[in-house]
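User: Quick one: structure for sequence A, then sequence B.

Assistant: Sequence A:
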Amino acid sequence: MAMTFDIARRPFQSATTSPGPDMEAWEQSLGISLPADYREFMLTFNGGSLRPFAFDLSIPDWDFTDKVHALNYLFDWKEVGKRSQWRMEPPLRNIPPDRLAIGSTISELTLTLSTDSGRFGAIDAWLRDTFNVWGEGGNTRVLPVAPSFSAFLAMLHDSADTYHHFWVDFDGDGEIARQVTLP
């Protein structure tokens, strides 16, 4: 099922070139391949802001009670590397294990892609606590969002109730949005 989105990059995103060589080096160093749908998206767009941007997710026992969340943007490959803390020793990382940080929401969630063989390619929401390493303090919660990157994209919808400032005043503040259709 093809999906049509508006896509653009914010000025702080470095997505000016394809991340192909860097992604391939990462895959070789860890001995895994990225899921085909996410890999294709990154090779084509290298992250960006999407519209529609809203998705539904209920988070039990959390202060933020809204069930509709807004995607800020999907990280470019350079930002995926930084936020996934690849160069840090595992006991020092605050990101949950076997995950790539691939995007953020306006409700302070980090979207992650699982690299674990049991849930390979699944998209989860990490209720991040950057003050603690994973498993300590409040840094213990990850919620399933979608079984794959494609399934996550299929969840995105328009929402009049969700304010998304990146799309409200986007003109002049980044790359011009263009419409794309993804498989």
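Sequence B:
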Amino acid sequence: DEKLLIRALENLSSNALRYSEKGGEIFFNAESAAQDGKIEIKISNTGALIQEKDIPFIFDPFFRGSNSRREKGTGLGLSIVKSIIESHAWSISVSTENQLTTFVIAIPYN
């Protein structure tokens, strides 16, 4: 569903903007991981990293991570994103490496 995918990407993009500090950077990347038979869409940003202790819970409804409590919101955005991604039989993950928070949507094409 194209509209749902756009909604998920908009949510991830707006989060990247919200949590990047002034002068920070946001990266968008899509690549084929041929050996895995997947296309990966990556959205990364510099700025406030998601704390390790929060990562297992960030896709839970109403969860507000330690760094997000200063921002307005209900804590539903990432749970909606995950529901959209999983409704297409895709997967989503997050990592915090090299001073970047990166969300990866994996889309199988085989």
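The longest strand covers residues 100-108. The mean pLDDT is 87.

User: Thanks, that's what I needed.
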